[in-house]
Every structure is written in structure tokens, then in C-alpha cells.
């Protein structure tokens, strides 16, 4: 792109350079896999009989090898509201495949955890590593070598990154991600936050809190706040892995159905024996990875993706780190304020112009790569700068169209690159003698970007809650929660800390959080240095801190440090791993995991990726 912003160009070139060996190895892998792809006409009849036995009305087409066979990998369960709509998708997808002379089979299912259900509970310690399990389950699903393309059904936090990591190892096949869309808006996010803080202070009952939460999370569809799940959908759009504009169309609508049909038709058109071959491994290149990062920064997306982007990039042979993210953030303006960084939710965001508006602004300002291959009807990102609709001309997909998105429908929600909310993307690297960490400045008022205060050191979020209730934290304070990294306990989210720390901040105290754990994709308002690397386990800097040490966290200067004399201290002893809730089954993942900046993955580390 001739108008590419110099910082975007520089970081992209740096990523390409340091990824040369890994990317070359990856492309060689998928080329070899493409060459070795079995011709089903030559596969053992016994093997084929096993594969086709359950295909019912598609059996004759499969026997004749008359068209591409699409493998569907689904993360369906009906405990996750976002994934509940997928229950009836397989039959619809098969019908859409038949329309274009293709067939579709459910290749397999993957686990799908809900971080909203496990927040503050022991199950959260399985959450990050569920991404590895999902990637491996995707690999198992696709290992039957019966497929010419992939449809990937997943939305939520670890599920999309896990599906993408697994699918990329079969990157000689084309792939389309198929979202199901957000639930309708319910209780306002401001009201929900108000009741949560009242409950934290003992001023609201549990029944009042539950009624408020049920008013927010009330029907099938993705949760409507802009957390990790909806950030996933944004990234898939800017990487060109969705049908253009598919991210935030609600379930059960005619437009949602038309976009799902288009997904099947497109993956059937992109197979290796057709005229428009677009293998996933070529679509997901260095430029696509940069687009994902730029989109995250421009929309104030989830901090969890500071871990997920490096992980799925590695699966494609690409290296990106927090220095790259921070440098990109310095050039990418904040175009959107979606709760928890603003008042409105993703439905408001979509109605104001949504992904078409954001994509148009980023590409027009030279902040994103417009020549990413994508899976739209036209190669490149042009269709992604539009919004989808139905023109009413017919019952088939001739009625699906894309149109100009126009100007922002709400300047409090969505702004142009020329007049953004702030000039940078608000994902900053902070570093010093306490290690390297991420700070989401887009969610924090600028007068709170710097906090310097004595620290109080904890080993669990429950200990923090107890100290808060006892009134022990009513002062300027840096709360340190350590031994929460990947190798210690699976790096759980610590979102339950947000209400009490928010209360302290509202009381007028200077408050910050420092942790080697994660915050939720819905983190906001309280300044936090998260994902601290190295983690405390094994003698990392956080293990040397003591109560009363003065800790400074500053997003403006990129500092994370203490005046305490760490060199003369002995590290706090590593905690004994907890058992129960299946945590003992994940001991191997904890033992093999690498640091958060590389993705916190046992699977990728042990594979040498």
C-alpha cells in the first residue's frame, strides 16, 4: 500500500524479517500437506465406508467424489449463550453446501468454556489452557483427511484462537469462521456496573445483583460488552476470515442466515481444485496478523489478545511481541468507545457503523493492510469496508449485498481516524525491574495513568476481597497479586477484583493492580499492569516484593518498577499446585507453558513453534 503509515510499515517489515525462518518452514509444511492430500478416489474403500456411513442423503455425492467436502468444526454447547445457536447449524450448512454441488460433514467438536461462568471460581484455572485443548481437538477433527475446506464455528474467549491455531496446521485448506452474532441489548452496562459496585460495598442484595446480571445476559447470542469474545469477531473481520460484515449480526435474522449461506458457498469456491484457491495458511500472513493487532488497538479491545495474537501468529510461523503491539499502539488512534471503555454495547457499535466503518477508516488512513487476501467475493479488504444487507430481490443469496456504511451514527461511540477519541490505541508496554507487562490505557482516565504507592502483596484474589472487606486497603495502594501466571496456576482472569478496586478508586484513593495473571476482556477504569513476565513462579521479580515496597506504574513513560532492594532478597516460596475441578489433569500444560508474551502455551512451546 502506497499510503501505509510509516509506523505500520516499519513494524510490519520488522515482523516479516524476524519471522523469515518460521514462516518459510510453515509455508513449506502446508505446501507438503497440499501435495500429500489424499485423492479420495485412491483411498481404501474400507476407510471411505467408515467416513461416509453416516452421511445419509450426501452418501451418493461422496461416493461419486462429485464436489468439495467441507469439514465443520463446531464448539457448540448450550451452556454458552454465544454458542447455543450453533445447535441447529449443521443441517443448515449441509443444505447450503448442496446448493453449490458440495457436501458438508461435522468433522468434530471442541470444548467451549465460558469465562463468565468460571470468573472467581477454580474452573478459571483451566481457561487459558482450554485454548491448547481446543487447538488439539481441531487437529483431531481434521486429521481424517476427508475434507477440502473448513467451516469453524466458535466465538468466545479461547475458542476462536484455539480453532485458528488448530486450523492453521491444516493451512493448505481454505477456511471461513462462522459467528452466530450478539444477543439483543438488555440492562445498560452503566447500570450493571453500578449494581456490582453496590454489592461489593454490601449495599445491594444477592437477589438484586442476580436480577441485574440476568437483565444483561438474557438470551442466546454473544454477551454484548466488548470483551474477548467480541474482540475475536473484530479480529476475524480485519484478518479477512469472516464473510464481510458478519461479526455483529444478531442470531435468528434473515441477514444472519444469508451470511451463513455465503460462508458455505465461499469455502466451497476456494478449494484447491477450483478457480479461486485461497488456503488459510496464505490468508493468515504477517499483514493479516498486523491487521488483527491494529483492529484491537483501534477499538479498545480485550487485553487477553496480547496473549492470543502471539500464540496464533506462531501457529502460522509469524513472530509478534509486546514491543510490536506497543509501537503499533503509538500510531493507531482509538476510533471506538464500546463498553467497558464507553457507554454503549456492540449492538450500538454495529448500528453506529460497526466494522465496516472501522475497516474503511483504518485502510483509508493507511493504518491497516488492504491487500490481505480475505475470503470475500473479491480478494482484498475492499468488501470489509462496507456493511452487509439484503436488497429483497430474491430468496437465495442474490439478495445479499454490501453497501457504503456512511458516516458515524454516534460520535460518542465511533469516530473517524481524523478525529479520534485519542491519538493512540491504548495498549502500552510497561517494563522495569518488575519485568514486562501490559497496560490498557484506553480504559483508564489519563490522570490515573501514573500511580506510585506502597504495595500490598497477595497470592489470591480471594485474599484481596477479604482485605477489602476488612477495610485494610483504604489508602493509596498498589495491589500485587502474584503466582497467577501460566506455570503457577494456568493464568486465570482476575475480573472479580474490578468492583472492589473500583470502589477504592471512587473513594478518592490512588489505586493500581500489578499481577502476573490476566484481567477480563471487560477490564477497565482501574490502572493495571497485567501478564507480568517473568511470572512470580520460579523466582520472578514479583516473588521478591514485600508489603510496603513502593511500586510505580506509569503508562505515560512505560515504567513498572519498585524502589525496593530486590537483589538482597529471597524469593517467596512457590505455592503447591491445587487439585480438584480437574486442575490436576492440566499439570503437563503448566509444566511446559512458556511466558505470557509468547502466548502462554504448552502445546506451541513443546512443538518448537
TrEMBL record:
Binds 1 [4Fe-4S] cluster. Keywords: 4Fe-4S, Carbohydrate metabolism, Gluconate utilization, Iron, Iron-sulfur, Lyase, Metal-binding. Its EC number is 4.2.1.12. It is an enzyme of class 4 (lyase). InterPro entries: 6-phosphgluc_deHydtase (IPR004786), Dihydro-acid_dehy_C (IPR042096), DiOHA_6PGluconate_deHydtase_CS (IPR020558), ILV_EDD_C (IPR056740), ILV_EDD_N (IPR000581), IlvD/EDD_N (IPR037237). One of its GO terms (molecular function) is metal ion binding. Pathway: Carbohydrate metabolism; Entner-Doudoroff pathway. GO terms for biological process: D-gluconate metabolic process; Entner-Doudoroff pathway through 6-phosphogluconate. It catalyses: 6-phospho-D-gluconate = 2-dehydro-3-deoxy-6-phospho-D-gluconate + H2O. Pfam families: ILV_EDD_C (PF24877), ILVD_EDD_N (PF00920). Residues 68-375 form the Dihydroxy-acid/6-phosphogluconate dehydratase N-terminal domain. Residues 413-599 form the Dihydroxy-acid/6-phosphogluconate dehydratase C-terminal domain. GO terms for cellular component: cytosol. [4Fe-4S] cluster binds at residues 156, 223. It comes from the Bacteria. Its cofactor is [4Fe-4S] cluster. Catalyzes the dehydration of 6-phospho-D-gluconate to 2-dehydro-3-deoxy-6-phospho-D-gluconate. Belongs to the IlvD/Edd family. This is Phosphogluconate dehydratase. The gene is edd.
Amino acid at each position: 500500500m502506497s499510503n501505509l503509515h510509516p509506523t505500520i510499515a516499519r513494524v510490519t517489515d520488522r515482523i516479516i524479517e524476524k519471522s523469515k525462518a518460521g514462516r518459510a518452514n510453515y509455508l513449506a509444511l502446508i505446501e507438503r500437506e497440499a501435495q500429500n492430500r489424499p485423492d479420495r478416489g485412491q483411498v481404501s474403500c474400507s476407510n471411505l465406508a467408515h467416513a461416509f456411513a453416516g452421511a445419509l442423503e450426501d452418501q451418493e455425492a461422496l461416493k461419486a467424489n462429485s464436489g468439495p467436502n467441507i469439514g465443520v468444526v463446531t464448539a457448540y454447547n448450550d451452556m454458552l449463550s454465544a454458542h447455543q445457536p450453533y445447535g441447529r447449524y449443521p443441517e443448515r450448512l449441509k443444505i447450503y453446501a448442496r446448493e453449490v454441488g458440495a457436501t458438508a460433514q461435522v468433522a468434530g467438536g471442541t470444548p467451549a468454556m465460558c469465562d463468565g461462568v468460571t470468573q472467581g471460581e477454580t474452573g478459571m484455572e483451566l481457561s487459558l489452557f482450554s485454548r491448547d485443548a481446543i487447538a488439539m481437538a481441531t487437529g483431531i477433527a481434521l486429521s481424517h483427511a476427508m475434507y477440502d475446506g473448513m467451516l469453524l464455528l466458535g466465538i468466545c474467549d479461547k475458542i476462536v484462537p484455539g480453532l485458528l491455531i488448530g486450523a492453521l496446521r491444516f493451512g493448505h485448506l481454505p477456511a471461513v469462521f462462522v459467528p452466530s452474532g450478539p444477543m439483543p441489548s438488555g440492562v445498560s452496562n452503566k447500570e450493571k456496573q453500578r449494581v456490582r459496585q453496590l454489592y461489593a460495598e454490601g449495599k445491594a442484595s444477592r437477589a438484586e445483583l442476580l436480577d441485574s446480571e440476568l437483565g444483561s445476559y438474557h438470551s442466546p447470542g454473544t454477551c454484548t460488552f466488548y470483551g474477548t469474545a467480541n474482540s475475536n469477531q473484530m479480529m476475524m473481520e480485519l484478518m479477512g476470515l469472516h464473510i464481510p460484515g458478519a461479526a455483529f449480526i444478531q442470531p435468528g435474522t434473515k441477514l444472519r442466515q444469508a451470511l451463513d449461506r455465503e460462508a458455505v458457498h465461499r469455502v466451497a469456491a476456494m478449494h484447491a481444485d477450483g478457480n479461486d484457491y485461497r488456503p488459510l495458511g496464505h490468508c493468515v500472513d504477517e499483514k493479516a496478523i498486523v491487521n488483527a493487532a491494529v483492529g484491537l488497538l483501534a477499538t479498545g479491545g480485550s487485553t487477553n489478545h496480547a496473549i492470543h495474537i502471539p500464540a496464533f501468529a506462531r501457529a502460522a510461523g509469524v513472530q509478534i511481541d509486546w514491543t510490536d503491539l506497543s509501537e503499533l499502539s503509538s500510531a493507531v488512534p482509538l476510533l471506538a468507545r464500546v463498553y467497558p471503555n464507553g457507554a454503549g454495547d456492540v449492538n450500538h457499535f454495529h448500528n453506529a457503523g460497526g466494522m465496516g466503518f472501522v475497516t474503511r477508516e483504518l485502510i483509508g488512513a493507511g493504518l491497516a493492510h488492504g491487500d490481505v487476501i480475505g475470503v470475500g467475493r473479491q480478494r482484498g479488504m475492499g468488501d470489509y469496508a462496507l456493511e452487509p444487507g439484503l436488497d429483497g430481490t430474491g430468496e437465495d443469496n442474490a439478495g445479499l449485498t454490501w453497501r457504503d456504511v456512511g458516516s458515524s451514527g454516534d460520535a460518542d461511540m465511533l469516530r473517524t481516524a481524523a478525529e479520534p477519541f485519542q491519538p493512540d490505541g491504548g495498549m502500552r508496554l510497561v517494563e522495569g525491574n518488575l519485568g514486562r507487562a501490559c497496560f490498557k490505557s484506553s480504559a483508564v482516565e489519563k490522570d490515573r495513568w501514573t500511580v506510585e504507592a506502597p504495595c500490598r502483596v497477595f497470592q489470591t484474589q480471594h485474599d484481596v476481597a477479604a482485605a477489602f472487606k476488612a477495610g485494610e486497603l483504604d489508602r493509596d495502594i498498589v495491589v500485587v497479586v502474584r503466582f497467577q501466571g501460566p506455570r503457577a496456576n494456568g493464568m486465570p482472569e482476575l475480573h472479580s477484583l474490578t468492583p472492589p478496586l473500583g470502589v477504592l478508586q471512587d473513594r478518592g484513593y490512588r489505586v493500581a493492580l500489578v499481577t502476573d495473571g490476566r484481567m477480563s476482556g471487560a477490564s477497565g477504569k482501574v490502572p493495571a499492569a497485567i501478564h507480568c513476565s517473568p511470572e512470580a513462579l520460579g523466582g520472578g521479580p514479583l516473588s521478591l516484593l514485600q508489603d510496603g515496597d513502593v511500586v510505580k506504574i506509569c503508562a505515560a513513560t512505560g515504567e513498572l518498577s519498585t524502589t525496593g532492594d530486590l537483589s538482597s532478597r529471597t524469593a517467596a516460596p512457590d505455592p503447591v499446585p491445587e487439585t480438584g475441578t480437574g486442575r490436576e489433569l492440566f499439570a503437563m500444560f503448566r509444566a511446559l507453558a512458556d511466558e505470557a508474551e509468547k502466548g502462554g502455551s504448552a502445546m506451541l512451546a513443546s512443538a518448537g513453534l
